[in-house]
Amino acid sequence: GAGVSQSPSNKVTEKGKDVELRCDPISGHTALYWYRQSLGQGLEFLIYFQGNSAPDKSGLPSDRFSAERTGGSVSTLTIQRTQQEDSAVYLCASARDGTNSPLHFGNGTRLTVT
Amino acid sequence: GENVEQHPSTLSVQEGDSAVIKCTYSDSASNYFPWYKQELGKRPQLIIDIRSNVGEKKDQRIAVTLNKTAKHFSLHITETQPEDSAVYFCAASWSYIPTFGRGTSLIVHP
What is the share, in percent, of chain A residues with pLDDT greater than 90? Predict the structure, then answer.
Protein backbone atom coordinates (compact mmCIF):
# COMPACT_ATOMS: atom_id res chain seq x y z
CA GLY A 1 0.00 0.00 0.00
CA ALA A 2 0.94 3.65 -0.12
CA GLY A 3 3.49 4.87 2.37
CA VAL A 4 3.73 8.18 4.18
CA SER A 5 3.66 11.04 1.70
CA GLN A 6 5.19 14.45 2.34
CA SER A 7 5.07 17.61 0.27
CA PRO A 8 6.84 19.55 -0.93
CA SER A 9 10.02 17.49 -1.16
CA ASN A 10 12.10 20.66 -1.25
CA LYS A 11 11.29 24.19 -0.13
CA VAL A 12 13.49 27.25 -0.40
CA THR A 13 12.20 30.33 1.36
CA GLU A 14 13.44 33.72 2.41
CA LYS A 15 14.07 34.53 6.02
CA GLY A 16 10.94 35.91 7.64
CA LYS A 17 8.46 34.11 5.38
CA ASP A 18 5.96 31.52 6.61
CA VAL A 19 6.02 27.94 5.30
CA GLU A 20 3.61 25.03 5.44
CA LEU A 21 4.73 21.41 5.23
CA ARG A 22 2.23 18.64 4.56
CA CYS A 23 2.13 15.01 5.66
CA ASP A 24 -0.29 12.33 4.48
CA PRO A 25 0.08 9.29 6.77
CA ILE A 26 -0.60 5.65 6.02
CA SER A 27 -4.34 5.03 5.98
CA GLY A 28 -5.57 3.70 9.31
CA HIS A 29 -2.53 4.81 11.29
CA THR A 30 -3.69 6.73 14.33
CA ALA A 31 -0.30 8.01 15.51
CA LEU A 32 1.55 10.77 13.64
CA TYR A 33 4.92 12.33 14.45
CA TRP A 34 6.99 15.22 13.18
CA TYR A 35 10.77 15.09 13.59
CA ARG A 36 13.50 17.44 12.41
CA GLN A 37 16.83 16.23 11.07
CA SER A 38 19.68 18.71 10.79
CA LEU A 39 22.94 17.91 9.02
CA GLY A 40 24.92 15.42 11.08
CA GLN A 41 22.33 15.43 13.82
CA GLY A 42 19.87 12.87 15.03
CA LEU A 43 16.13 13.01 14.77
CA GLU A 44 14.74 15.79 16.95
CA PHE A 45 11.16 15.22 18.10
CA LEU A 46 8.76 18.09 17.40
CA ILE A 47 5.13 17.01 17.91
CA TYR A 48 3.00 13.87 18.30
CA PHE A 49 -0.66 13.28 17.46
CA GLN A 50 -2.59 10.22 18.64
CA GLY A 51 -6.16 9.77 17.49
CA ASN A 52 -8.42 12.53 18.77
CA SER A 53 -6.29 13.27 21.83
CA ALA A 54 -4.62 16.62 22.39
CA PRO A 55 -1.22 16.62 20.66
CA ASP A 56 2.04 16.42 22.58
CA LYS A 57 3.77 19.66 21.58
CA SER A 58 6.67 19.31 23.99
CA GLY A 59 9.29 19.20 21.24
CA LEU A 60 8.37 22.37 19.37
CA PRO A 61 11.43 24.66 19.59
CA SER A 62 9.54 27.96 19.65
CA ASP A 63 6.09 29.49 19.30
CA ARG A 64 6.85 30.07 15.61
CA PHE A 65 6.18 26.37 15.11
CA SER A 66 2.69 24.89 15.09
CA ALA A 67 0.99 21.83 13.66
CA GLU A 68 -2.47 20.52 13.17
CA ARG A 69 -4.00 17.26 12.09
CA THR A 70 -7.37 17.48 10.44
CA GLY A 71 -9.85 14.64 10.65
CA GLY A 72 -7.27 12.37 12.20
CA SER A 73 -5.42 12.08 8.90
CA VAL A 74 -3.44 14.75 7.05
CA SER A 75 -1.14 16.94 9.12
CA THR A 76 0.36 20.35 8.40
CA LEU A 77 3.43 21.76 10.12
CA THR A 78 3.63 25.55 9.93
CA ILE A 79 6.73 27.60 10.61
CA GLN A 80 6.14 31.33 10.89
CA ARG A 81 8.78 34.01 10.31
CA THR A 82 11.37 31.44 9.27
CA GLN A 83 14.96 31.80 10.45
CA GLN A 84 18.14 30.34 8.95
CA GLU A 85 18.45 27.92 11.84
CA ASP A 86 15.14 26.39 10.75
CA SER A 87 16.92 24.92 7.71
CA ALA A 88 16.70 21.14 8.04
CA VAL A 89 14.88 18.06 6.76
CA TYR A 90 11.45 17.77 8.34
CA LEU A 91 10.36 14.15 8.62
CA CYS A 92 6.84 12.95 9.22
CA ALA A 93 6.13 9.43 10.46
CA SER A 94 2.99 7.50 11.21
CA ALA A 95 2.41 4.41 13.32
CA ARG A 96 -0.43 1.95 13.62
CA ASP A 97 -1.27 3.15 17.12
CA GLY A 98 0.25 4.71 20.21
CA THR A 99 1.61 1.54 21.75
CA ASN A 100 5.23 1.69 20.64
CA SER A 101 4.45 0.52 17.12
CA PRO A 102 7.22 0.90 14.53
CA LEU A 103 7.37 4.30 12.83
CA HIS A 104 6.93 4.57 9.07
CA PHE A 105 8.70 7.65 7.80
CA GLY A 106 8.02 9.81 4.78
CA ASN A 107 10.80 11.02 2.52
CA GLY A 108 10.88 14.36 4.28
CA THR A 109 10.77 17.99 3.23
CA ARG A 110 14.15 19.67 2.86
CA LEU A 111 13.69 23.27 4.01
CA THR A 112 16.30 25.87 3.14
CA VAL A 113 15.94 29.37 4.57
CA THR A 114 18.03 31.94 2.75
CA GLY B 1 13.10 13.40 29.63
CA GLU B 2 14.85 10.51 27.92
CA ASN B 3 18.42 10.95 26.67
CA VAL B 4 19.99 8.50 24.21
CA GLU B 5 23.72 8.40 23.54
CA GLN B 6 25.02 6.51 20.50
CA HIS B 7 28.58 5.44 19.66
CA PRO B 8 30.55 5.50 17.50
CA SER B 9 29.49 8.36 15.24
CA THR B 10 31.39 6.80 12.35
CA LEU B 11 32.35 3.16 11.80
CA SER B 12 34.44 1.91 8.91
CA VAL B 13 34.81 -1.84 8.29
CA GLN B 14 35.92 -4.21 5.58
CA GLU B 15 33.35 -6.31 3.80
CA GLY B 16 32.80 -9.51 5.75
CA ASP B 17 33.75 -8.01 9.11
CA SER B 18 31.29 -7.53 11.97
CA ALA B 19 30.02 -4.12 13.09
CA VAL B 20 28.75 -3.16 16.53
CA ILE B 21 26.91 0.04 17.42
CA LYS B 22 26.17 0.85 21.05
CA CYS B 23 23.52 3.01 22.68
CA THR B 24 22.79 4.01 26.26
CA TYR B 25 19.59 5.52 27.59
CA SER B 26 18.74 7.41 30.75
CA ASP B 27 15.10 6.64 31.57
CA SER B 28 14.66 3.26 33.24
CA ALA B 29 10.98 3.33 32.24
CA SER B 30 11.88 2.93 28.56
CA ASN B 31 10.59 -0.39 27.27
CA TYR B 32 10.89 -0.27 23.48
CA PHE B 33 14.15 -0.02 21.53
CA PRO B 34 13.97 0.18 17.73
CA TRP B 35 16.81 0.54 15.24
CA TYR B 36 16.42 2.41 11.97
CA LYS B 37 18.60 2.41 8.86
CA GLN B 38 18.78 5.48 6.65
CA GLU B 39 20.48 5.14 3.30
CA LEU B 40 21.80 8.28 1.65
CA GLY B 41 18.95 10.50 0.53
CA LYS B 42 16.28 8.09 1.71
CA ARG B 43 13.88 7.79 4.59
CA PRO B 44 14.75 5.97 7.84
CA GLN B 45 13.41 2.44 7.90
CA LEU B 46 13.00 0.05 10.80
CA ILE B 47 15.40 -2.88 10.65
CA ILE B 48 14.89 -4.51 14.04
CA ASP B 49 13.38 -3.71 17.42
CA ILE B 50 13.41 -5.19 20.89
CA ARG B 51 11.14 -4.85 23.88
CA SER B 52 12.21 -4.84 27.49
CA ASN B 53 11.01 -8.35 28.27
CA VAL B 54 13.60 -9.79 25.87
CA GLY B 55 17.37 -9.75 26.19
CA GLU B 56 18.33 -10.55 22.62
CA LYS B 57 16.70 -10.72 19.21
CA LYS B 58 18.17 -11.90 15.92
CA ASP B 59 17.11 -11.55 12.30
CA GLN B 60 19.52 -13.12 9.80
CA ARG B 61 22.72 -11.05 9.91
CA ILE B 62 21.52 -8.50 12.43
CA ALA B 63 20.97 -8.87 16.15
CA VAL B 64 20.16 -6.57 19.01
CA THR B 65 21.01 -7.09 22.67
CA LEU B 66 19.50 -5.25 25.63
CA ASN B 67 20.88 -4.87 29.14
CA LYS B 68 18.19 -3.15 31.19
CA THR B 69 20.27 -3.09 34.35
CA ALA B 70 23.03 -1.15 32.65
CA LYS B 71 20.58 0.73 30.41
CA HIS B 72 22.36 -0.03 27.19
CA PHE B 73 21.55 -1.85 23.97
CA SER B 74 23.60 -2.74 20.93
CA LEU B 75 23.18 -3.55 17.26
CA HIS B 76 25.37 -6.29 15.80
CA ILE B 77 25.77 -6.80 12.08
CA THR B 78 27.73 -9.87 10.95
CA GLU B 79 29.28 -10.55 7.54
CA THR B 80 28.86 -6.93 6.50
CA GLN B 81 28.19 -6.13 2.86
CA PRO B 82 28.59 -2.85 0.93
CA GLU B 83 24.80 -2.43 0.89
CA ASP B 84 24.90 -2.24 4.69
CA SER B 85 26.54 1.19 4.29
CA ALA B 86 24.11 3.72 5.78
CA VAL B 87 23.38 5.78 8.88
CA TYR B 88 21.93 3.73 11.73
CA PHE B 89 19.82 5.29 14.48
CA CYS B 90 18.91 3.73 17.78
CA ALA B 91 15.93 4.92 19.79
CA ALA B 92 14.37 4.40 23.21
CA SER B 93 10.74 4.89 24.10
CA TRP B 94 8.40 4.58 27.06
CA SER B 95 5.80 7.24 26.29
CA TYR B 96 5.21 6.24 22.66
CA ILE B 97 7.52 9.05 21.57
CA PRO B 98 10.88 7.55 20.57
CA THR B 99 13.99 9.52 21.48
CA PHE B 100 16.70 8.95 18.89
CA GLY B 101 20.46 8.78 19.13
CA ARG B 102 22.55 10.99 16.85
CA GLY B 103 23.27 8.19 14.42
CA THR B 104 26.23 6.08 13.32
CA SER B 105 27.54 6.32 9.79
CA LEU B 106 28.59 2.79 8.81
CA ILE B 107 30.90 2.47 5.83
CA VAL B 108 31.58 -1.02 4.47
CA HIS B 109 34.56 -1.15 2.13
CA PRO B 110 34.44 -3.82 -0.60
Answer: 82
d(CA A38, CA A102): 22
Closest-CA distance of chain B to residue A17, Å? 26
- Alpha carbons B32 and B93: distance in angstroms, whole number: 5
pLDDT tens figures, B40-60: 989 999 999 999 888 999 999
Q: How far apart are CA A13 and CA A84, in angstroms?
A: 10
For residue A54, give every residue at least 6 positions away whose Cβ sits within 8 Å of its Cβ, in sequence order, or none.
Answer: none
Contact B43 A106 (CB under 8 A): yes
Q: How far apart are the first and last CA of chain A?
A: 37
Q: Is the CB of residue A86 less than 8 Å from the CB of residue A79?
A: yes
The C-alpha of B32 sits at a distance from chain A's nearest C-alpha, in angstroms, of 7
Cis peptide leading into B8, omega within 30 of 0? Answer: yes
Task: State the alpha helices, DSSP H only, in chain B.
Answer: none
Per-residue pLDDT tens over the stretch A27-44: 999 999 999 999 877 899
Neighboring chain B residues of A59 at a CB cutoff of 8 Å: 97
